[in-house]
Write a structure and sequence with these properties.
single chain, five-stranded parallel sheet, 11% strand, alpha/beta
């Protein structure tokens, strides 16, 4: 994957609160600039035109994530939430909001780098625990009927089925390529075909359709405890 310029990343926290002194490394090939923007995130607005990705470390995403989105307004930047909160409904709400989600203690800085780079190409990255929570919520709220599942599967080729299964576990195009011994470009071409076949706007929408979340939640509703 190549970039014409290195990325600008906003860490939406005070410098002393950022847990990774070694990230990003000075010679990071993708991240060229990091700006700390603790609440009320004034620095975020000051650099709005240049920001590529916002990383939000927070204890309570239910409150912090909507506040951040409200402040961002129409900024064209992706968001990654880092939190100890493993509540499935919280994770699904963040995921449906278009943000990646890394659970504290469940990721390394290499995974953070992959999440940042993937966010700039439309991939919504989940750490393994966040992905497991998403699956749990989907199964608990509305397990897809066998006939609906088969209709979805019938739309995809065998290779596309392999890629979709890996995408739904939180892997990005690069990791999928490594698993399947395909070039990243080939994976991305397959993903474009998958999105078109599933009538999905991108990876977030495709995974939600694949896991069956949309069968239990009306578009635009927020998630609460299942009745």
């Amino acid at each position: 994957m190549g970039f014409s310029r290195r990325l600008t990343v906003v860490l939406a926290c005070a410098e002393d609160d950022w847990p990774h002194d070694d990230w990003p490394a000075p010679d990071d090939p993708y991240v060229g600039r990091v700006v700390h923007a603790p609440e009320p995130h004034q620095a975020l607005r000051e650099h709005a035109d240049a920001v590529d990705v916002v990383v939000l470390p927070c204890e309570n995403p239910v409150d912090a994530f909507p506040r951040l989105l409200s402040l961002m307004g129409d900024m064209n930047a992706s968001v990654i939430v880092i939190s100890p909160d493993r509540d499935p409904e919280t994770i699904v709400d963040v995921f449906r909001g278009g943000a990646g989600y890394l659970v504290e203690g469940d990721y390394c800085t290499c995974m953070l780098s992959a999440a940042v780079v993937g966010a700039t190409t439309g991939h919504t990255y989940l750490s393994p625990a966040a992905c497991a929570a998403l699956r749990e919520c989907a199964q608990r709220m509305a397990p897809p009927r066998d006939d609906a599942r088969q209709r979805l599967r019938a739309l995809l080729s065998p290779r596309e089925l392999q890629i979709m299964e890996l995408l739904s576990t939180g892997l990005g195009a690069q990791e999928i390529g490594v698993r399947l011994r395909l070039t990243e470009k080939t994976v991305r071409n397959n993903l474009s075909n998958i999105y078109a076949k599933l009538d999905a706007r991108g990876s977030t929408d495709a995974v939600l359709r694949w896991l069956g979340v949309r069968q239990g939640i009306r578009q635009g509703d927020s998630l609460g405890s299942p009745s």
